[in-house]
Amino acid sequence: MTDRNLKIFILIVFTFSLSISTAFPQENELVAPDLFDENLVQPNYHYEYIPDFTYDLIKERVDKMDSEMSFELNDRIFSFIQYFTVRNRDYTKMVLARKDLFFPLFEETLAEHEMPDDIKYLSIIESGLDPQIRSRVGAMGLWQFMPATGRMYGMDINWDIDERMDPEQSTEAAAKYLKSLYRMFGDWELALAAYNCGPGNVRKAIRRSGGKKKFWEIYNYLPRETRGYVPQFQAMMYILRHLDAHNLHLEEPTYSFATESIRFERAFTLDKLSELTNLCLSDLEKLNPAVKRRKIPESHKSMAIRVPVNQANYVKENFAWIADSLGNELRPLLASDKLIYRSEDEKLDEIERNTITYRVQSGDNLGKIAQNYRVSVSQIKEWNNLSSNLIRVGQRLTLHAPEGAAPSRTIAKVQTNSNGQKTYVVQPGDSLWIISRRFAGLTVDQLKRLNNLNSTQIKPGQRLIIG
Q: What are phi and psi for residue 443, nearest 5 degrees?
């Protein structure tokens, strides 16, 4: 082979070898990654498992249900079971989150009236267990009372208070009304229908049906809404007994907490009560849904207010000054203020305000400090830029108190009038209870009697007979 031919042969072999190595790389060579490598793309789908079921399976479960309000499954009820367990599971979960807040009350009330326990599920259809919900026609509360029916069962309805939204009162009224409807028709399904559309419409449907007296016999003669109302209730009777079978669970259910009712016997606002006691305002609103504008009016001053039981002891131990302070709305006072009061003999008594630095001690709270230094809680908070009523031992507070104000000291002269009676000039922050504590043997009732007071309302500058 000539040198020229040998060179051509070597060139061909080298080129072929290079092509082979490019087409089939070795194991230790780097290869571009596959963009669709399943190890690099990890899809994460959050599908909720909804168990399948058939009509026959649901019927088998319904037939085994133990209830005083027995019902037979039909296509209408089955369609609502499908709706609440498949298509609208969110609604079912919403009422599951609320049921433990109200079901114990429902169960207790129904037992007292010797009524079927399953009637508790009716509130789910009525309101979704929302005590403040309002319908398009003006019905309110857990049991959706119209104003006229609410008043008929003793519930007050005005600008500030709507007792249809009170869980206890509305549940008691609903039990009485449903029981009266049952006595009227002798059938719970018809009683429920009458609760929805009124007994007049049920009687009309009975007449149009030729005197039939069962719900499904008069079904076609009832208003359209009522024809869906009772089947929805029966669907809930089934569903809440078979939550596991439909994979209906809550990760964080809502539980009720114990409360205690306290009467303050005066008009006041929930905002003021929260300020004086450090009770959470949103808790007070949730526990007292019948209070529409955070205000207890004079007409309802005997209304009981629910507070968390773990904070009720503090309120009861300090009840006297809290109750008196609830009615005192003071004008904000600054350190530069000079208060002038006119006495009976036309002389001027002048009180200057002094700045005091107070160190918080064990057992102190803003209400106690305000009482001792004759100022208000809101003033202390304003002077010290406090956003809440929380204070800590050792904390220093700036107080702009009246001259001479200090614990267990009277800050104004006690004078004797021409009749030989001792009188006292009311100071900012005073209440009848605070004044009674300053003078041994004096009570609030005595102060009211001596001064012909019909209430505990007093104002700075007012002169009171104290003995």
A: -120, 165
- The HSE-up count of residue 292 (CA atoms within 13 Å, CB side) is 16
What is the pTM for the complete model shown? 0.64
Out of 126, 163, 172, 189, pick the active-site residue: 126
* pLDDT, tens only, 30-53: 333 333 344 444 444 456 899 999
DSSP state at residue 322? H
Q: Residues 459, 460, 462, 463: is their CA dihedral positive or negative?
A: positive
Helix (H, G, I), strand (E, B) or coil at 124: helix
Neighbours of 390 (CB within 10 A): 10
In the residue annotation, 126 being an active-site residue is answered as yes
Residues 424, 412: contact at Cβ < 8 Å?
A: yes
Chain centroid to CA 87:
29
CA 182 distance to own-chain centroid: 32
The tens digit of pLDDT for each residue in 199-247 reads 999 999 999 999 999 999 999 999 999 999 999 999 999 999 999 999 9
How far is 430 from 163, CA to CA, in rounded Å?
34
